[in-house]
Design goal:
The chain is of the alpha+beta class. It has helices at about 1-15, 85-90, 115-130, 135-145, 155-160, 170-180, 190-210, 215-230, 235-250, 260-285, 290-310, 320-325, 330-345, 350-375, 385-405, 410-430, 465-475, and strands at about 20-25, 30, 40-50, 50-65, 70-80, 95-105, 315, 380-385, 435-440, 450-455, 455-460, 485-490, 505, 515-520, 520-530, 530-540, 540-550, 555-565, 575-580, 595, 600-605, 610-615. The chain is built from 17 helices and 22 strands.
Length: about 625
């Protein structure tokens, strides 16, 4: 029912596409824009042409603003850009994108409580930045206040590779360490007072963190637990989890499409299952339960979130269990001293006292970053697993585990699982060995191409600094620290910042004469012309071509695969297949096989024809 109502609301908003209207909006989220002095983000529409309304749009470019600031301007309404991100935009509550046309007029900021908490969190984060240097202040601001905008890209990358990004998001662990202290067992006459304090602390942390799915899920569970103390009923974890999901999706049924929602709830289900396993083990073997309680939670959380990571095209950390064991214990002192220091820093003339409290918090965060860096540099820190093959193995292992537990054959399970995993891993490795994968990376109207094989990469580059960032992110997701060869096809482009063993700039080559380079045993021909450049990759007899600018051919030129053609394809160029982004090129030959989409990739197996598949990257 909620989904039907949500779809009805979306349809009524999407009808506004193509219109130019005067809107009064309130800024709900911001991120940097490609234009100086501008930003982009989620806007809550309060008035439309003077009439009160309530819906959200994604603002593509508007003057730099803070959360809660309001302004009036003229916007042109357009449909959401790209099918692949439509559900994610719906999860944020945005059903249209709006481009500001003019008539900008700032208004009084919103007085809503959530924006007051946002301003409070921003002020506390700025105090942290004044007391501690980066990247430690940014890490502490994310852990204690939920202010992730101050995180450095290097720190986020290290924590992601180590598989402990959840420590940088206010969630159940953080609420347990703060609000949970008031629920500790003590005198019964003070227990309900402690429960009330825990509820208020949970609400404070939820508002301070911006009501993200992870903190709402944990906070709801905490509030249900507190409510149970007043009615003398034990809280049920699954009931609390379901209630949290219902509250999150009540206002927006598409909230389940949010990645943080999926990861948070799957991890929580894993912890609930872990608790049942350790409780059962405690009844039979009380000696080593403490060891199981230490090792099993990160293992269960990793297993239950693995399907989501695979379906979303995320990389999997092979050292997440180790990284959790060596860093989680530092969260409690870092969070306690950090939050206390931030609160004391709000008081007048207490900056020195706040600084003393932040010293141990900074030391804990510094040690945590060092341990995370050590874990991220271990072998198999980043595992790039094929999606459907790995999911098939996961389902098979889950089926075997269920059957063995149902038949009470636990020892047989410990024999079968290693065999199935080892045989499956060997088969998957063999299937993906010597497979050349061509992936388009970046904006769909002008992407570059990243070609990978056996852990090495070739980059056929076009675009600017934003394209470089997208390429580096993609290579990192593939577990590749530097490219083997980068061919820069741009004309008079800025200097490249991509990490590579060899960089070839087409513009620096002699015009009209192709030069040969080699990547992983495959020949790469690069040609510089007056009005354009091209690169030709030879793989097992297949010719893969990519051009930039206007390239001319004096005679017939055959290519098996053309990547992202620009403009009209010359009649001298004869191609069998085309892979490009959103825009379909002008084709004179209707027999050409055409594949498009940001998620489309070409796969070349030894001795096989070129295949195309949808990817999650």
């Amino acid at each position: 029912m909620a989904g039907i109502l949500g779809r009805f609301v979306i349809a009524s908003v999407e009808k506004k596409a193509g219109q130019t209207v005067q809107l009064t909006v309130c800024v709900e989220s911001v991120s940097s824009s490609y234009q100086d002095g501008m930003c982009r983000g989620l806007l809550l529409v309060e008035e439309e042409n003077g009439s009160p309304v309530h819906y959200r749009v994604y603002g593509t470019a508007f003057p730099e603003s803070e959360l809660g600031e309001r302004f009036s301007a003229q916007f042109s309404m357009e449909g959401l850009d790209g099918e692949e991100y439509r559900l994610a935009d719906y999860a944020d509550g945005a059903y249209l994108q709006a481009e500001m046309q003019g008539d900008y007029q700032p208004l009084a900021p919103s007085r809503a409580a959530r924006f007051a908490f946002a301003r409070l969190g921003r002020k506390m984060a700025q105090n942290l930045l004044a007391q501690l240097r980066q990247p430690y202040s940014g890490l502490l601001a994310a852990m204690t206040l939920g202010q992730t905008s101050y995180l450095s890209a290097e720190a986020k990358s290290v924590f992601r590779r180590a598989g402990i990004s959840h420590l940088l998001v206010v969630s159940g662990l953080h609420l347990t360490l703060t609000a949970g202290v008031f629920l500790s067992k003590g005198k019964k006459r003070y227990f309900r007072a402690g429960a009330l304090a825990a509820a208020l602390t949970a609400l404070f942390m939820m508002e301070l963190a911006g009501m993200t799915p992870s903190v709402v899920r944990a906070g709801t569970a905490m509030l249900v637990s507190v409510a149970g103390t007043f009615v003398l009923a034990a809280p049920d974890p699954l009931t609390s989890l379901g209630l949290a999901g219902l509250l999150l999706c009540l206002g927006n049924p598409y909230g389940v499409c949010d990645l943080s929602f999926q990861l948070s709830f799957c991890a929580c289900l894993g912890l609930v299952a872990c608790q049942k396993v350790t409780t059962r083990a405690k009844r039979k073997h009380s000696g080593a339960v403490w060891l199981l309680s230490l090792l099993l939670p990160p293992v269960f959380a990793a297993l239950f979130t693995l399907p989501v990571q695979l379906l979303q095209g995320l990389t999997v950390s092979g050292v997440s269990v180790i990284a959790n064991l060596v860093t989680v214990w530092l969260t409690a002192p870092a969070l306690s001293f950090g939050l206390l220091g931030c609160l004391v820093g709000l008081l007048p003339r207490c900056r020195v006292a706040a600084g003393f409290l932040l010293v141990p918090a900074g030391l804990c965060v510094r040690l945590m970053l060092a341990l995370a860096t050590w874990a991220a540099e271990l072998p198999f820190a980043v595992l790039v697993l094929p999606r459907w093959e790995t999911l098939g193995v996961f389902v098979l292992c889950a089926f075997l585990a269920g059957m063995c537990l149902h038949k009470k054959k636990g020892r047989l399970l410990w024999v079968l699982l290693p065999i199935v995993i080892a045989v499956s891993a060997g088969g998957i490795w063999r299937l993906n060995r010597d497979v050349v994968r061509v992936q388009l990376v970046g904006p769909t109207n002008n992407p570059c191409a990243v070609v990978t094989e056996n852990g090495t990469s070739l980059v056929l580059f076009r675009g600017g600094s934003i394209q470089q960032n997208r390429t580096m992110e993609y290579l990192e997701n593939c577990g590749i620290s530097e490219a083997e060869l980068v061919v820069d096809l741009r004309q008079n482009g800025e200097a490249l910042c991509l990490a590579a063993r060899q960089v070839v700039t087409a513009e620096s080559l002699a015009q009209g004469v192709s030069e040969s380079f080699f990547w992983n045993g495959h020949e790469v021909l690069v040609l510089n012309q007056k009005q354009g450049n091209l690169a030709l990759l030879m793989v097992d007899g297949k010719r893969i071509l990519m051009t930039a600018g206007r390239v001319e051919f004096s005679s017939r030129f055959d290519a098996d695969l053309l990547l992202v053609p620009t403009g009209t394809i010359p009649k001298e160029l004869q191609v069998r297949q085309i892979l490009c982004g959103r825009q379909r090129p002008e084709l004179e030959d209707g027999k050409v096989e055409f594949h498009w989409g940001k998620r489309a990739a070409a796969l070349l197996r030894p001795g096989k024809e070129i295949k195309f598949k949808e990817t999650a990257q």
